Give the backbone structure.
Amino acid sequence: MELGVQNGQKRVIPLNHHPDFSKQGYQVITELGRNSEAGRITYLANVLNSNQQVVIKEFCFTRASADLSGVKVYQREIEILQKLNHSRIPRYIDSFEIPGFFYLVQEYKNAPSLGLKRSFHPEEIKQIALSILEILVDLQKQVPPIIHRDIKPENILVDEQLNAYLVDFGLARMQDAKIALSSFVAGTPGFMPPEEQFGHALTEASDLYSLGATLICLLTNTRSVDIGNLIDDNYRFNVQKLVPQISPHFRSWLMRMVERNRKRRYAKASVALKTLQEAIEVVGTATKIDTLVSTIKPRKQTTVLGLATVVTLAVVGSTLVSCQPGGAVRQFLKATECQGFDFRSSCQEKTGHED
């Protein structure tokens, strides 16, 4: 008998239940986890005659889609993994087939999944966000860019130094690749960006929504299966209500990550990463102006300009300040990052920021 780990719980696994991969050059050590519904089991194994450990993913065609289309899915995953060379994406090592089963062998990373019950301080969550964004920057630099399509706590591993690793590229696609209609809604409910749910084209901004949803789960200590409890009747995350302890600037950044309209999100991971790196404190106290800014809803240009005037009067008394560097109107617009406003050219002109 041997102790194994499944969903963070130790359990006894009879040795005779481990598959024999000696002909392929591997010896199974233990089972790491399983998804019976999808027909997937993950094993930790040794490479025979070496000290190297690997992860072997088993895909059962008799319980999943048991035809050639299933094999093609895994072939696409292998093709994508072979293109990548990032230290925090487990590299592809090998693959083999046994009648009714397909096996994918990858590098082993000694880091638990965020899907396990773990609590982090908000500043630690920021470090995890930075680490994942660095990986997404690399994916989006590929030609064509690679979209993961299934970012969620279970697919992120984090070690003791808060280095994050991105795994499970089974749904990943190159941005220019055509996706069959049947595979459009293939991610995880609650983490899927709205454009995928409605069959619209995916962009670099699509993975940012999923990452934002993941961060909200971490900040609220919510399990992935309970993410629906965080979404209001308008199918939005009410960030201010869910995580009132975070600073207004970090809240604004996070709200833009989970903006339902992809055109109002950060355009790509490099922009979101640069913004988060700019000394944004995660926990902080809101000033009166910050509080006013955080409560503003997207409205027409006239409404925004009227609010900008109110802020200006509150700051300088009775004298209006023009939109010059240092002016209150400029600071107001920059603080909101023109999020959700329709007067794009005006925003760019006054703040130098693109929507």
Observations:
- The mean pLDDT is 79.
- The longest helix spans residues 122-141.
- The first strand starts at residue 2 and ends at 6.
